[in-house]
Amino acid sequence: xxxxxxxxxxxxxxxxxxxxxxxxxxxxxxxxxxxxxxxxxxxxxxxxxxxxxxxxxxxxxxxxxxxxxxxxxxxxxxxxxxxxxxxxxxxxxxxxxxxxxxxxxxxxxxxxxxxxxxxxxxxxxxxxxxxxxxxxxxxxxxxxxxxxxxxxxxxxxxxxxxxxxxxxxxxxxxxxxxxxxxxxxxxxxxxxxxxxxxxxxxxxxxxxxxxxxxxxxxxxxxxxxxxxxxxxxxxxxxxxxxxxxxxxxxxxxxxxxxxxxxxxxxxxxxxxxxxxxxxxxxxxxxxxxxxxxxxxxxxxxxxxxxxxxxxxxxxxxxxxxxxxxxxxxxxxxxxxxxxxxxxxxxxxxxxxxxxxxxxxxxxxxxxxxxxxxxxxxxxxxxxxxxxxxxxxxxxxxxxxxxxxxxxxxxxxxxxxxxxxxxxxxxxxxxxxxxxxxxxxxxxxxxxxxxxxxxxxxxxxxxxxxxxxxxxxxxxxxxxxxxxxxxxxxxxxxxxxxxxxxxxxxxxxxxxxxxxxxxxxxxxxxxxxxxxxxxxxxxxxxxxxxxxxxxxxxxxxxxxxxxxxxxxxxxxxxxxxxxxxxxxxxxxxxxxxxxxxxxxxxxxxxxxxxxxxxxxxxxxxxxxxxxxxxxx
Length: 631
Known about the structure:
There is one protein chain. The protein is α+β, with helices and mostly antiparallel strands. It is 24% helix and 28% strand. It has eleven helices and 34 strands. Strands 6, 7, 8, 9 and 10 form a five-stranded antiparallel beta sheet that branches. Strands 15, 16, 17, 18 and 19 form a five-stranded antiparallel beta sheet that branches. The radius of gyration is 34 Å and the shape is elongated.
């Protein structure tokens, strides 16, 4: 085992081997040992000390020198008897007891380590500064002991040669579609590489992102969940504010734009790096060592408003930041779970990985991810996939080079479950991608998201369990398309919701022809009380979209069509469908529609679009449609 802190070396060096020595033969032996060590004859030096101890069993300097030689080789079992003799000869010295504690700890002798540490605390009562450090170490020891005795499940798997090479690979960041961006260091040069997944879900051979890499280092970065925004840590830039600044690049028509400095609300004259972006792109977390923090490096957060402007970065609270160093934040797409590294919170080694969860406007106390995820070594940054099941990190545990590994994240450290919506909007006739707006109503949280499709017609949004979503897709000159997602009824949300939406153009009118009507469009967010024609309040979301169609097309009118399944009599179903269609018209008029421009009809069970033999099919048949008529 590797000792957590090397404070014990300070303690040993502070006890000069020649102190408290009056015997000139002991002094001569220590000088001889020093010369042997300089000549790299350590085995001979150890032999000389052991022989001298037989002759002078009370000489503290001999035990001190021999302990140090064994500790230099991490031979704690050999150092321990000499440290115990040193403690016997110098029982009131807390530095000796501390070194004894560290050695017992390294050998897994936790009861003896605790006893030695208790003596250090007892002997440090008059030195407040030293006592504070020892009490902090007691926190670490208590955690360490419990973690070693209660390990978490951890079976890391090294990614294959498509990602890892003979060079260093680290800092993986992964979009919803599996695209991975990571840093590769060749010699002293850091560049960004990318790998996409093929149709079988396997990573393809990685390649450099050529238009972003420069002769300077392209360091820590993050990729947005939709894979179209990249934030990088760059140095040696003419437009930089400090030693390292954060820059942003957007993917446009398949190519990354030139990087742009994110401005003085985020960057400072100090070191600003290690970004992570929330799933909706509204919050940016990063590490900085600027003045005004609580420790050496701290984690900050900036918010982006609806105009795209970033707020002045603010320091996260002391449930995360400490007097030590916090670094490498990663905010999961659940927008609640923040993973980060710290060398101050109780842990196993130099830097451990921790988890804090958002609780309203504050964060919960940092929680260590446990052993052996964390070890006596310094752990690197962690990335957790959207479903919260797989975690990625870099380690040199196998090849000596840093490689990227993946493991199953234990349940207790998983983020809140989420899934995502991916929509691709195309023209129904040409299949060309459309610039469209996607409006998402998150009913239970009374939150509305509006997305704009990219040049390829795609847009992505995180969805949360326990709620229902109304989704409408609109584009100028096209009819409304709607979807409904119920994450209360869904048994599992581990699969994304992916829709290819082919939009129907609003029909035009030839002056010599009859009025032209569109094909029927299903309104997936019109809801009635069961077995009734009474509209539920959440239907207003879709109603207002229909009003916008009427407003944008003054020469058009709407026809509302009601349908039912085949449960019950045909006559009753026809009547119910008519009543429901009329309820929709009446509500539209109440919301401001011109009654003359809205008609309705009911078709009962006569036009099913699915089987009536299943609950799912019957639910699809119980629908409300509309057509638009251009007069």
